[in-house]
Amino acid sequence: MVELKGVAKSFARRLFVQNRSFALRDINIAVGRGEVVGILGESGSGKSTVANIITCLTSYDGGSYRFKGRDIASYTRKERFAFKSDVQIVFQDPYGSLNPRATVRGSVMESLILHRPDLGRRERIERANALLEEVGLSADAGDRYPHEFSGGQRQRVAIARAIAVEPELLVLDEPLSSLDVSIQAQILELFVRMIRERDLTIVFISHDVNVVRLLCDRVYVMNQGAVVEEGFARDVLNHPQNEYTARLLDAVY
Ligand SMILES: Nc1ncnc2c1ncn2[C@@H]1O[C@H](COP(=O)(O)OP(=O)(O)OP(=O)(O)O)[C@@H](O)[C@H]1O
């Protein structure tokens, strides 16, 4: 479903200075349909930049990105629009991704209005209610506003909004990092259930070895803008071949 080949991305170090600081170098990442693939690394390793390239929120300077076998550089307008519902992202901070002036049902319905114009208003409301229930929110939650919810509940709303358009690929960018540990466990449970019950392909960005171990089939380990190790999560995390991966694992125990 996703194939990044030799992808590079650099950011200017300072405004008006020609000195480029490289964020990503020669990234090769492939994600097959139905896989849950982790991208693991410390802060600043380039994980979010990869997430933003996969979701087309950031451009890349070199290499290629094929989505469902088609190079996204050659997408038509129609394909670009379809991509926006095929690929959804959930960010670390759910507050930033929800409209504070819309009820949470309104937020979920917003993406349905854009991507499912075939649905009538009644159907959209019913679908939004069902989604809020699926992510573990009560029936009356839909009428309330983001600020009335806890961080964990807001993240549930962001998840409902992301899956509303039935994306083929869901990118989760550190979706647990802003939450208390007990809440993290509950959201993790929700992901486990979603993976079991929905036909999803997931790219899971995380610095947490244990979460990747629990959720992911395969993992790419990133350090300083490069992939340093990849493989089945159980192999990489039980028998790391790379020194950096071994250090990451040591830091956990
Ligand atoms: N918009 C930007 N402008 C300049 N530099 C950036 C920008 N976005 C990322 N970078 C730099 O690129 C590198 C990788 O950042 P990225 O956010 O992808 O890492 P990360 O592994 O996701 O870390 P974190 O978990 O802290 O977000 C960092 O050195 C960062 O400073």
Rg to the nearest angstrom? Answer: 19 Å
Q: Termini distance?
A: 34 Å
Our estimate of the beta-strand percent is 25-35%
How many strands, what sense, and barrel or not for the largest sheet?
A: 6 strands, mixed
- Compressed to H and E, one letter per element, the order equals EEEHEEHEHHHHEHEHEEHH
SS-based structural class? Answer: alpha/beta
Q: Report mean pLDDT, rounded to a whole number.
A: 93
Tally of DSSP β-strands: 10
* Residue runs with pLDDT of under 50 for 5 or more positions: none
Give, in spatial order, the strands making up the sheet with the most strands. Answer: 6-7-8-3-9-10
Number of helices: 10
What's this model, at a glance?
Belongs to the ABC transporter superfamily. With 253 residues, the chain is an alpha/beta fold.
Give me the secondary-structure topology:
Blueprint: E1 2-12, E2 20-31, E3 36-40, H1 47-54, E4 62-67, E5 70-71, H2 77-86, E6 87-90, H3 94-97, H4 104-115, H5 121-134, H6 151-163, E7 169-173, H7 181-197, E8 201-206, H8 209-215, E9 218-223, E10 226-232, H9 233-238, H10 243-252
Parallel strand pairs: 3-8, 3-9, 6-7, 7-8
Antiparallel strand pairs: 1-2, 1-4, 4-5, 9-10
The structure holds adenosine-5'-triphosphate.
Keywords: ATP-binding, Nucleotide-binding, Transport
Domain ABC transporter: 2-249
Pfam family, one: ABC_tran
